[in-house]
Amino acid sequence: MSSTTPDSSRPSMSDQPAPSLGPVPLFDRHLKVISDSYLNFFLERKRIEEVYVGSLLKLYSKVKSIDGGLDDLTELSTARRAWSEVIDNVEREAQTRQAFLATLTSDVVNALIALKETQDRTRKRIKEDIKESINSYTDYAENVLPKLKRTYLRKCQEVEDYKAAAAAPPSNIQGTPYPEQGAQNVSSSWSNPNLSAKPVVTAPQPLRPLDRKPSGSAPGYRTRSPSTSATFSDFAHHGKKQLNQLITFLDKGGNVRETLGVRSENHSLRAVRTKREADEADKEYRKGVHWLETLRLRRIKILDNAYISLGNFIRDYSSTAKIVLEKYVDNLMATNVTQTQLSEHARSVIKKISPERDLSLAANQIPRSLASLVPKPILYYNYNVGECNDLIFGVSLVDYATSRGLSETEIPRIAQLCVDELNKRGLEAEGIYRVSGRHAVVQDLQHKIERNEAAFKFNPLTDDVYAVASLLKLYLRELPEPLFRYPLQDRSEHTESRVEQNQISQMRSKIRRLPAIHRETLRAVVEHLARVAARSEKNKMDIKNLAIVFNNVIFGEEEIPKGGDLLSVQHVNDTRMEGLILNASQLFEDPPSSSSPPLPAVPVGEMASTYQYGSSHTKVASVPPRPQSLKREEDFHPLLPPRPTSSIHPSLRANPISPIGATMDIPPLPRSQALDDDQCPSPSSDSRTDYQIVSRPSSPLSQSPRTDTDSLCRSESVRTS
């Protein structure tokens, strides 16, 4: 049997797998993905959501505390109600986010943590099993099995040595005096496995015969065993304690003597025993190889199970990731749907905001609040009459209209009262506006109307028309801003213009640029003066006389230029006031509703169609007969009678009975053409047919009673909003 070297089949540490291979690194990589990617994201998402929910709740509490101090016990406006719903939606959103946070924790984070912990335990168990199997296999392959193999080979070599010794011829016994020496030679040959497979075995030397009776003259025997006498002498000295040593020595001596006799028998026995030991070593070695294979298969089985566990981990990891992400997205969608519903609810409440209702709600509180804030007015105290509630004289028309909230069609009450009173009683009063009223009466009327404008009324028995006319002139003259500011230089330039239509258009454009209160007051005064001029046969006040009186009253006082004189100013040609009175119907007529071209002339041989009087604004109950057509010169320039020889000096009014409406027969205003909706009748017609105009109901806006049913010379007898 040849011997083989065991180093070629012995595993080494260089054959071990690299640390980056195997199931454990794959476990580590997937667990790192779960931990660093999924769990880190969802934990950070959870933290952000917790911070957001906390911020929402903090904001809600803060705003609620602020609104609790701002909103009093009164009824909330629609805007504040909508705001309250928007703020409540913040709390609802926080509750929705809390539900999303709970589902994120239970369905996502906890599931990933459970998967990680379970697979981490599996990884640790697999790692321990693999480590144990590797260590067991390596230790057995590198330590135990080589030892068994060396024992087996040594025993086999000993058997071969005994066989070779038995087959060899006998030689000198001195070669191997003792069996132990041969055994040492055999063992020395096995100590080095690199020796030849069949080492040379030296045959035992033949035993020398021993003399049974040793001779005393032979010193060789005495020197060969000198310890016998010493032993007995020691025995004598030591006594019984050395008895065992003596017996042992005698046995050795017997063995030595018997060695040469029984050497052949011991050699056979040792060969058999060595053979048996070799067989046992072979069995142990075979068992060792089998156990090493068992360890190798066990290691393979552990690795297979580890990879199976890795596959289960990957499958569980993928399925868990799918379930977790589905739940996350579903919860996110549910949260967004809830958020959308909250926004739609808030939008429906916001649509209910009504500015008009909020304004009315606030308007109910404004008067009380304004009354508590506005101080009481400090009234003007007149030395003669006491406190005056209303300041009228010397107050601009714009300030008057603003303080009393007049509409664009209203005029000051004093102007309306004076015009109405003069239309009733003063149209035929001789020298009206030229004859001044008594100063004391005019001042008394001024103080009365300023003491209580709303309750003031003229008394026909005590207040003569001249005082009323003087009161109207005084009011217009004391206006800070003239009723119709028109410088004298401009008036003279436009007077020199020969084209009448251009003068009317230019004057109309100037009137339209006036403030509403100035325009309407000018209209009332000029139309009233046109009525006065129409009665010039009785009141002796033609257009020129009225223009002289009202020139400075309407247009304002003119300043004398530097280096000029009063005579040069008086000789300036100015007929603009006359033009105002003469063309009142054209200057103050409302613009046509449409710019339709004029109708063509009536065909020859056909009668012109007659149209009923009235419009959508007026109804005519009694229509006067159509007057004869008059020439324009006769229509607008009535023939005035010569000046009366009697004087109209104020001293003639010493008669206590003033000409009032009750004692004077005031004929109706003559008309020369059909009455239109917005056109004033001509002031110089001889027709005096009475008729009546029925007006539509006025608009909700307060209107001053500017139209008198007895006076039919107003171009706007009916005005609707």
TrEMBL record:
Q: Which GO terms describe its molecular function?
A: GTPase activator activity
InterPro entries attached to this UniProt entry: AH/BAR_dom_sf, FCH_dom, Rho-GAP, Rho_GTPase_activation_prot, RhoGAP_dom
**Species, as recorded:** Scleroderma citrinum Foug A
- Say if the entry is tagged with keyword S-adenosyl-L-methionine: no
Tell me if Transmembrane helix is a UniProt keyword of this record: no
Gene Ontology terms, cellular component aspect? cytoplasm
Annotated Basic and acidic residues bias: 707-721
- What top-level branch of life does the organism fall under? Eukaryota
Q: What is this protein called?
A: Rho-GAP domain-containing protein
Domain Rho-GAP intervals: 395-588
